[in-house]
Amino acid sequence: MADKSPKESTIQSLRSWGEGSVPPTLLATLITAQHFRPFQPLPMMFPPVLLFSSYLNLSGYQSDAAGITAAWSGLYALLAMRRKHSVKQKFGARGFVRGASLGLCAVNVAGCGIAYVFGKREKEEAEK
């Protein structure tokens, strides 16, 4: 017989994505790959904050790290969407990395936002 355990819902899988430490690290890597050479100072402000968010997550502050990741992913998506690219530029290596980073930003905003909104903090749980 097949196992009849309930499958994870979309909300639960987004929340577990948002509570992980890999999404901000992956986004920081994609941003660095895109803007390090030639160096662009404004977009390069995002990777240190995202890596700090990953550090917070590993230190036990999953809810707070998810909020930081959601906010900074959304800000980077707004910044990246302002740039216009021709059709030729969209299908190269840089276009693929840009598309991947924007897609990851969208998933991070959704997943980390859900993890932040529904997350619990240790202090709140200890008081109850």
Automatic annotation (TrEMBL):
Keywords for the protein's UniProt record, in alphabetical order: Membrane, Transmembrane, Transmembrane helix
Transmembrane segments: 60-79, 100-119
Domain of life: Eukaryota
UniProt protein name: Uncharacterized protein
Species of provenance: Massarina eburnea CBS 473.64
